[in-house]
Amino acid sequence: MLRSLTYGSEEIVYTLNFRKRKTLGITVHPDRSTEVNAPEGSSIEKIEQKIRKRAAWILKQQDHFLSFEPRNTVRKYVSGESHLYLGRQYQLLVIKSNEEIVKHTGRNIEIRTSDTSKIEKLLESWYLEKSRAWFHTIAKPLIEHFKKYQVEPNKLEIRKMPHRWGSCSTNGRILLNPELIKAPKACIEYVIIHELCHLVHRDHTKAFFDLQQKEFPEWKKWKNKLEVLLA
User: Cα–Cα distance between 207 and 197 in angstroms, integer?
Assistant: First the structure.
């Protein structure tokens, strides 16, 4: 039985099964689907009460499995291959040269090198350089805006992370994955705002989602865009 309930600005969709068991069990699967196994005879009202108590955990598990998990796409790094930059597709143009340089030219990302084995490393370095410039530029006004809540990150770092788009430590350090530079600006803003909201509310509580909704009403649209594009 497929059901749903609202928690803050989020909707939790779950499959409800009635089983011969004594307690209610909730499982979040890697595909982000949620399964609730309830004792036979349980009322929907009591089931929903228990789900609401675990709602923050459910959403946190869903985030863990997909929302902030970059896609690992196998690349060949040859001319004509498509690569993303700020949400747009560009073709890789490899030119044999004594230079070692990467630049964005029109519809291409041009890489000049005499050693094709260096192409991947050169492109990754270019993405990292661009992410450092763009992320701080995008984050600056958002950080200023969040000062009204008496919070401010003590540091913003760019770091490659295999399973996260961003994170916020207990001491207020925000980390952003350079892979985000491949996404549209609004997706980057969404991740930064998500982490800034964690400076106000540490966990994925209703108050957290209410704040995120207030500060970025279109966050669901850009969260979905990020997942479709890169996750």
Answer: 10
Reduced 3-state DSSP string for 33-86:
CEEEEEECCCCHHHHHHHHHHCHHHHHHHHHHHHHCCCCCCCCCCCCCCEEEEC
Q: Is residue 95 within 8 Å of 116, Cβ to Cβ?
A: no
For 6, the 3-state DSSP assignment is strand
pLDDT tens per residue, range 112-141: 999 999 999 999 999 999 999 999 999 999
pLDDT at 67: 47
Q: What Cα–Cα distance (Å) separates residue 198 from each residue in 57, 70, 211?
A: 15, 20, 10
Q: Determine how many CB atoms are found less than 10 A away from the CB of residue 135.
A: 23
How distant, in Å, are the alpha carbons of 5, 12, 39, 40, 176 from that of 47? 11, 13, 10, 11, 37
Q: Give the span between the Cα atoms of 188 and 19, in whole angstroms.
A: 43
Q: What is the pLDDT of residue 28?
A: 85
Q: Determine the residue type at 229.
A: L
Given a contact cutoff of 8 angstroms between Cβ atoms, the answer to whether 24 and 39 are in contact is: yes
> Rounded to an integer, what distance in angstroms lies between the CA atom of residue 218 and that of residue 214?
10
